[in-house]
Design a protein that fits this description.
single chain, 429 residues, alpha+beta, Rossmann fold, 2 domains, 6-stranded mixed beta sheet, globular
């Protein structure tokens, strides 16, 4: 079977000028003035030639294939080359080297309102965008009502889209791209603009497209969504594909280094945000008695954070929160002091705050902690991945003689106490 998408030795080169940030879009007057002053600048520099432009490879040597019916995630940090790759696949940008083979009609949603004309109405833009995607007028008319219903813009259908909010733009653009039956659907991170309900509709639509044999290429920074939607993912770093394989393994390559140990010293962390009048200094996870890091499912456990005051002042009450995530970044629960009416007080030096579990409800596996502190009006300190810790198997059902704990990699991450009772048999009619 021919791949739906084949990328061979793909590269995209840009020329980065050193003349200044306005070099590529200077006015005619600025260009003339710059040329007139060139002899004087050369004389001052000893007639040295101007700094040459630099080569920047946004993509280089990219190779991968996507089979028909696959849903593949493209992940990577900002500036890695993801959007450049999608623009080449959507034939918006030409590659410098290599070749892309697409076997099927392509529908793409790369940026808010791509292919929309701001002066045209929503109705007119549905037909315009559908034509750009290669659909006939009859084909667009057949799907028109379904597109409008999905986008939820009936009231504003005859309003110029320049008056649409960014969320309305996205709803209509995605509806057009998804409902006009492309064999290949390419979606960038623009879904983040929509509300939670619309995002879920989009995810359901992409899942349906995959089950119907459509090919989906999906770029997102939302790792739980990538894991849920995509069986395979490609990791891009500095314009190259450094990994292609199961999505959960690809996500682990993207996450921060897992070498941080228990009792992490946070004082030297610079990747944080907040006003910083007081900051997290340490985080420690241990058994309830504090004797060691052997944390067990269903056993007592505690998380202790130390806050340091960096500016002088009187004692202040603050709110402290711990966000527990699984190893793929999905939020499992939030422990916040103000949820239970507790407001720790920070004095002149430092304060320790302890969160305790009588029975830890986390299944065996690796977890991550984010830290937050502040007041009702100010965010003082936020540290993501402040701690990475392991939970080992324990006896979550101590009163049950024959039990098996669920597996975190198959059944979720939370252990729940529950009963299972056999009811009386129902008589057949």
């Amino acid at each position: 079977m021919e791949p739906a998408i084949r990328v061979e030795n793909l590269g995209k080169l840009y020329r980065v000028s050193n003349r200044g940030e306005r070099a590529n879009y200077a006015t005619l007057r600025e260009t003339v003035m710059h040329a007139a002053g060139a002899p004087l600048r050369w004389a001052r520099k000893g007639f040295a030639p101007p700094d040459p432009a630099e080569d920047f490879w946004a993509l280089k040597g990219v190779d991968f294939e996507v089979q028909p019916g696959e849903v593949v995630g493209i992940i990577g940090r900002n500036g890695a080359g993801k959007s450049t790759l999608l623009k080449i696949l959507s034939r918006i940008t030409k590659p410098t080297t290599g070749r892309v083979t697409l076997n099927g009609r392509v529908g793409s949603l790369l940026e808010v309102g791509t292919g929309f004309h701001p002066e045209l109405t929503g109705r007119e833009n549905v037909y315009l965008n559908g034509s750009i995607l290669g659909m006939s007028r009859r084909e667009i008319a057949k799907k028109f009502d379904e597109i409008v219903a999905f986008a939820e813009v009936e009231r504003f259908l005859d309003t110029p889209v320049k008056r649409y909010s960014s969320g309305m733009y996205v709803r209509l653009a995605f509806a057009v791209a998804a409902h006009l039956e492309p064999e290949i659907l390419i979606v960038d991170e623009v879904l983040a603009v929509g509300d939670a309900g619309f995002q879920q509709k989009c995810l359901d639509k992409m899942g349906t497209a995959a089950r119907d044999g459509k090919t989906v290429l999906f770029v997102s920074h939302n790792m739980p969504v990538i894991r849920m939607l995509c069986r395979r993912a490609c990791v891009i770093e500095r314009g190259r594909v450094v990994y292609s394989g199961p999505s959960q393994d690809a996500i682990l390559r993207m996450l921060p280094d897992s070498t941080r140990t228990l009792g992490q010293d946070l004082a030297t962390r610079t990747d944080r945000r907040g006003l910083g009048d007081y900051r997290f200094a340490k985080i420690h996870a241990a058994e309830a008695n504090g004797s060691g890091p052997n944390i067990l499912t269903g056993e007592p456990a505690q998380f202790i954070v130390e806050l340091s005051r960096l500016t002088p002042g009187r004692a202040t009450k603050v709110d402290v929160a711990i966000v527990i995530r699984d190893n793929y970044g999905a939020c499992l629960t939030t422990l916040a002091s103000h949820f239970i009416g507790c407001s720790p007080e920070i004095g002149a030096k430092s304060t320790r705050v302890q969160f305790s579990f009588d029975r830890l409800p986390l299944l065996a596996g690796r977890y991550r902690l984010d830290l937050w502190c502040g007041t009702a009006n100010d965010e003082q300190d936020v540290v993501q991945d402040a701690l990475i810790f392991d939970v080992n198997p324990g006896s979550f059902f101590p009163d049950v003689a024959d039990y098996r704990l669920p597996r975190a990699d198959r059944h979720g991450s939370i252990a729940v106490q529950y009963d299972c009772t056999t009811l009386s048999s129902m008589r057949s009619a």
